[in-house]
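User:
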Amino acid sequence: MNVSFENVSKVQGLLTINIEKADYSENVEKAIKEYRKKAQMPGFRPGMVPVNLIRKMYGAAIKAEEINKLLQEKVYGYIKDNKINMLGEPMPNDEKEAGQSVDADDLTFCFDIALAPEFDASVDSKDSLPYYEIQVSDEMVEGQVKAYTSRNGQYQTVDEYQENDMLKGAIVELENGQPKENGISKEDAVILPSYLKNDAQKALFNGAKVGSEIVFNPSQAYDGAAIELSSLLGKTKEEVEGLTSDFCLKVQEITRFVEGELNQELFDQVFGQGAVSSEAEFRSKVRETLENSYVPDSDYKFLLDARKFFMDKVGKLEYAEDLLKKIMLANAKDDADRERMETNFQKSLEELTWHLIQEQLVSKNEIKVEQADVEAQAKEATRAQFAQYGMMNVPEDLLENYSKEMLKKRETVDNLVNRAIETKLSAALKQQFKLETKKVSVEEFNKFFEA
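Assistant: Predicted structure:
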């Protein structure tokens, strides 16, 4: 067997493999004998079909299979041993192989190889990039504190209505100021006056007390919205369509939501036993937690800016575009997939360029992702999920169990590996660039991502 490689261009190569009968004949004979052991054919006992008959009927297919196995081994072995920086996969060159008979003993196979372009992604001592630190405002701290106290709040019954209270009671439809015969009524109606759309109707509930009877017009109160009317009166939208009557609500209960207190119990619940011991420390810790939560966003923006820097520095790379397109289309699932690939081909080349740049940067910075890194990313992702619900002090064993569940999914693991690589790469590049730190508000930061 002879394997050779030649550069057709800077970005494409041709791999040629000459296979002789001696290279595969022994394996073919072994495969035929193995097939004979399993073959079942009328007139013969299992495993007793004559070898020559097996060879006659299945020899060509077995030969093709064994040659294919040999090709796979030699092609990828040669590429690995010779450190050929291949893109995609080898594609058979039908023109080079044209004219040879599959029945011949000696065969030649030619493969087109797309080669990665050569470039240097490096950072000079004078290179600089902005790094945006997201400022946490006092309003954001107060909003987060309120979120914590709200989660610890509770509903209490009160005697007199204030804004945002909820009223419960019996409601009846009126006609000429009196209960309408066969009119609409409901014993357990619930209304939140603060959500009424008509200010004049909303004002009728001011100062209401348990036992008060309030005459109002639901249609005016909700601007005729059928959904709100049907919910209040317990009727279908069709039944309340065109309803304009006044109603009387006899208040039986007033409920008010009272936020939890800023006390040691709340401090311990949010940050752990004894982590903070005063309201000032609590607010400071909330600010610190919010600031830390924005660091990954700052790093993400930094990595986007680094990507643009390297893409501009490397410039447009040369690719074996026709061959790459052929490789992509060969892997398409259906016609729609092929059409998407054709349409987005240039965008795919841009993504490929960044992928190659990122690979080179990872190699230069000797970045490696261990199992411990993936597990740490899983824990951080789990911790962030709990934090969305105000659970800052999650027990370690709970984090461990949830993260283990995440690691059972292959797709999730791949995403975590990519995040771990990006985290380490971002940290390495922040040490190499001159960082121009810029403090911005959340609103200013978000504008970077507006379309």
